[in-house]
Design a protein that fits this description.
Number of domains: 2
CATH architecture of the largest domain: Alpha-Beta Complex
Shape: globular
Number of helices: 12
Order of helices and strands: EEEHEEEHEEHEHHEHEHEHEHEHEHEHE
Largest sheet: 7 strands, mixed
Structural class: alpha/beta
Strand content: 25-35%
Number of strands: 17
């Protein structure tokens, strides 16, 4: 089969690799019909997280079950499914308590040794361990383009806003209007925010956030703390969702939240650090919530229902759809912010 493989920092290519096979009785092999390039893939693309040359990459995908092992009970060949980007056992204490991101057997599609050496979804076929737990049926009639993000960033946005405790009178600021921030805007509105303010420096991203109901603030043109103070009688945002994963974005989130407010940290971090003045946090009575890796399996049915009934619309974020063979171009477009989201079709 063909798959996108990592070659070196800043270099991916499409190569022929061995077809995945059933290895355990609860595995399934899925024929991918649409995959996507995610911001997390760029961590590997930039060498921030380790991949070995030749490793396949990618973790967002939908497709059709090609083969199911004898212990798979929920799926059979021909079923259309979305993949969870993270692969969990479904049986340990953490999985049983809805904290699947802390699974004792946590793995990640397309993340090389870092993710348990599972194959990537930017491919023609992918093996999915514990298939009954890590696949979700796509509702009849739903397009790939609506379903695909339920396995990762759409559910992440839904979850990251749900745990923030948003109230009906709250003004919510979303720091970062990239793909995750786009879904955080919709999640905040779905969870009852009175107003959502998107903070970013890219006009195209802000335009997308406005399209789904946010008020946009370009932080190149206006100080975000002043902007939020002007909108809230000087207080600041009641809830802030940090959807970037950089120290500067985190510091912006703390700057714009009101006293007694909540910061939900959804952006992905690895080795970054910030200096925290505990007395300032204590005096301001701030509530910090770290989402960690999204527990997809505990939340994706609710997220899929929100897509199915139109409360979340993923389509505006898709800017490019390319053949799988043009994946290197897709990475260049996405990395340079010339694309908001790139889909790949085998």
């Amino acid at each position: 089969m063909r798959a996108v493989v990592y070659e070196d920092v800043g270099v991916v290519r499409v190569s022929d690799v061995p077809d995945p096979k059933i290895e355990e009785p609860d595995d399934a092999v899925v024929r991918i019909t649409t995959s996507a390039i995610c911001g997390s893939d760029l961590h590997f693309y930039h060498g921030k997280a380790p991949l070995v040359p030749g490793d396949t990459i990618g973790h967002e995908g939908v497709g059709v079950v090609e083969e199911a092992g004898p212990e798979v009970s929920r799926f059979r060949p021909g079923d259309r499914v979305v993949l969870s980007f993270d692969v969990v056992c479904g049986r340990c204490w953490f999985c049983a308590h809805g904290q699947t991101m802390l699974c004792e057997d946590f793995r990640n599609l397309g993340a090389g040794p870092f993710g348990g050496s599972l194959g990537g979804a930017q491919a023609e076929l992918v093996r999915v361990p514990h298939a009954d737990v890590n696949l979700l049926v796509i509702p009849e009639g739903m397009e790939d383009e609506r379903a695909i993000f339920v396995g990762d960033i759409l559910t992440t946005g839904y979850y990251g806003t749900a745990i923030a405790g948003i109230g009906p009178d709250d003004v919510v600021a979303v720091v970062g209007a990239g793909p995750v921030g786009f879904f955080c805007v919709q999640g905040a509105l779905l969870h009852g925010a009175r107003e959502v303010v998107a903070l970013d420096m890219e006009p195209d991203r802000l335009a997308l956030a406005e399209k789904v109901g946010a008020r946009a603030v370009n932080v190149r043109e206006r100080n975000p703390a002043v902007a939020l103070a002007d909108m809230t009688e000087g207080r600041g945002a009641d809830v802030v969702i940090e959807a970037v994963g950089s120290p500067s974005a985190y510091e912006t989130a703390v700057d714009v939240v009101r006293r007694g407010g909540t910061v939900s940290v959804v952006g992905m971090y690895a080795v970054e650090s910030v200096e925290m003045q505990l007395g300032v946090y204590w005096t301001r009575a701030l509530r910090l919530v770290f989402s960690g890796i999204c527990p997809i399996q505990a939340w994706w049915e609710r997220a899929m229902a929100a897509v199915s009934d139109g409360r979340i619309d993923p389509l505006p974020i898709v800017s490019h759809t390319l053949p799988l063979g043009e994946a290197p171009t897709g990475y260049e477009l996405f990395d340079s912010h010339r694309a908001t989201k790139v889909l790949l079709k085998p």
